[in-house]
Amino acid sequence: MSQKLELLPAVDVRDGQAVRLVHGESGSETSYGDPLQAALAWQRAGAEWLHLVDLDAAFGTGDNRAQIAEVARSMDIKVELSGGIRDDASLAAALATGCKRVNLGTAALETPEWVAKVIAEHGDKIAVGLDVRGTTLRGRGWTRDGGDLYETLARLDSEGCARYVVTDIAKDGTLQGPNLELLKNVCAATDKPVVASGGVSSLDDLRAIASLVPEGVEGAIVGKALYAKAFTLEEALKAVSE
Ligand SMILES: O=C(O)c1ccccc1N[C@@H]1O[C@H](COP(=O)(O)O)[C@@H](O)[C@H]1O
């Protein structure tokens, strides 16, 4: 039986609120209220995963660490935690929430030795977020270039990185459809599972991503489309299980 696409509804937290950004740009927020209530709603709707992001920590404008920890600890489902996890202390705090795995973004670009060390220590609890414009990686809240996607992917593969979360920044928060070419290209460049992020706007987009499961796509993060009620999470889960 072919594997089904995992869906990860997103809760991105900025200034204590669940928000969605457009192209990840600071200041483009639309607010959707209390992050815990949003997360609990996705759990009630049948989510098996929650993608939980501390945007302030990613941007370097503070953090929502206590609130994020409360959300993570309140979930019965698996949590993927990201934003501002860049050193031993922030990694320890993230893992102490009981999350299933963390995503490292900026650290993979700026402190590769540390990332190699924590991959060796924590195995598949560590994923790397490859946030790209074209094929150039972006870090520090997607404000700084951080090298070539495929060179970085080869390095991380050689270090045993278990999984990649691939975001096309040009698509993120736009409801313009995922970058399927990018996903196919990344899958062709690595044997490791890929989680797709950015641009999902419809159930057909999810079906298109699901068609890439045989190529190595394991999951899809869904944000704006759920908050904008383009479809419900129940409908999305059904669409990818058909
Ligand atoms: O998810 C977003 O919209 C986003 C926008 C701008 C920056 C980061 C964003 N999210 C995720 O944050 C982590 C990276 O954080 P860091 O670089 O490790 O501090 C990564 O998972 C991004 O996808």
Automatic annotation (TrEMBL):
Pathway where it operates: Amino-acid biosynthesis; L-histidine biosynthesis; L-histidine from 5-phospho-alpha-D-ribose 1-diphosphate: step 4/9; Amino-acid biosynthesis; L-tryptophan biosynthesis; L-tryptophan from chorismate: step 3/5
Subcellular location: Cytoplasm
Reaction equation(s) it catalyzes: 1-(5-phospho-beta-D-ribosyl)-5-[(5-phospho-beta-D-ribosylamino)methylideneamino]imidazole-4-carboxamide = 5-[(5-phospho-1-deoxy-D-ribulos-1-ylimino)methylamino]-1-(5-phospho-beta-D-ribosyl)imidazole-4-carboxamide; N-(5-phospho-beta-D-ribosyl)anthranilate = 1-(2-carboxyphenylamino)-1-deoxy-D-ribulose 5-phosphate
Enzyme Commission code(s) on record: 5.3.1.16, 5.3.1.24
InterPro entries on file: Aldolase_TIM, His_biosynth, HisA/PriA, HisA/PriA_Actinobacteria, Isoase_HisA-like, RibuloseP-bd_barrel
Keyword Isomerase on entry: yes
Catalytic-site annotation from UniProt: 12, 131
Top-level lineage group: Bacteria
Transmembrane region(s): none
Keywords: Amino-acid biosynthesis, Aromatic amino acid biosynthesis, Cytoplasm, Histidine biosynthesis, Isomerase, Tryptophan biosynthesis
Gene Ontology terms, MF aspect: isomerase activity
Family according to the record: Belongs to the HisA/HisF family.
PANTHER family, alphabetized: 1-(5-PHOSPHORIBOSYL)-5-[(5-PHOSPHORIBOSYLAMINO)METHYLIDENEAMINO] IMIDAZOLE-4-CARBOXAMIDE ISOMERASE
NCBIfam families recorded: hisA-trpF
Function: Involved in both the histidine and tryptophan biosynthetic pathways.
Protein name listed in UniProt: Phosphoribosyl isomerase A
Species this protein is from: Streptomyces enissocaesilis
Lineage: Bacteria, Bacillati, Actinomycetota, Actinomycetes, Kitasatosporales
